[in-house]
Amino acid sequence: MSRISWDQYFMTQSHLLALRSTCTRLAVGATIVRDKRIIAGGYNGSIAGGVHCSDEGCYVIDNHCVRTIHAEMNAILQCAKFGVPTAAAEIYVTHFPCLQCCKAIIQAGIQKVYYAVNYKNHPYAIELFEQSGVNVEHVELDENLLRQNNQEQIEFVSYLLTKLSAANISDEEKNELREKANSLFEQ
Ligand SMILES: [Zn+2]
Ligand SMILES: [Zn+2]
């Protein structure tokens, strides 16, 4: 079995964090890394203890949800809260950072941004990253890494198809196949 690369490992972590998002408009995750160690993580959501967009709907002003704090901002603020230096760190984000987060990333001394999905990439954000020497790299998430039993699923489906084409299957065998399918595909 081959080992997962660092880039995929941190990018997967950001995608896991995005699953914690409470904003229904977009789920974003961010992971701050220093010396190949995760030092902070964040997702877009309300202030601690606040109501959630997923419960009350988004609070939209000028086409932006103003209730949530962005994932990158939450990760940086987590470092501020616990006194963790962000100088020379790197950040892995599911989506290209917005202009506000871009500026916060630069000011926090983060040196490199890895992003998985292009998202309204603001030309001024691109310009500011360039101007401040922050390296930006596109890292696509390998989604198969999140499906550990993917290969097993494929093999099972092809076995199932062979079996079905053989026509006469006993009820016992059918039940076995059904149970196996349930265990493989249930989320
Ligand atoms: Zn929202
Ligand atoms: Zn942002």
TrEMBL record:
Tell me where on the tree of life, at the top rank, the source sits.
Bacteria
Instruction: Cite the CMP/dCMP-type deaminase domain residue spans from the record.
Output: 5-132
Identify the keywords attached in UniProt to this record, alphabetized: Hydrolase, Metal-binding, Zinc
Q: Name one GO cellular component term.
A: cytoplasm
Give the record's family classification. Answer: Belongs to the cytidine and deoxycytidylate deaminase family.
Keyword Manganese in the entry? The reply is: no
Q: What is this protein called?
A: ComE operon protein 2
Q: Which PROSITE patterns match?
A: CYT_DCMP_DEAMINASES_1, CYT_DCMP_DEAMINASES_2
Q: Which cofactor does it need?
A: Zn(2+)
**What is a single molecular function from GO for this protein?**
dCMP deaminase activity
One Pfam family for this entry, by name? Answer: dCMP_cyt_deam_1
Q: Per its UniProt record, what InterPro entries does this chain match?
A: APOBEC/CMP_deaminase_Zn-bd, CMP_dCMP_dom, Competence_ComEB, Cytidine_deaminase-like, dCMP_deaminase-rel, Deoxycytidylate_deaminase_dom
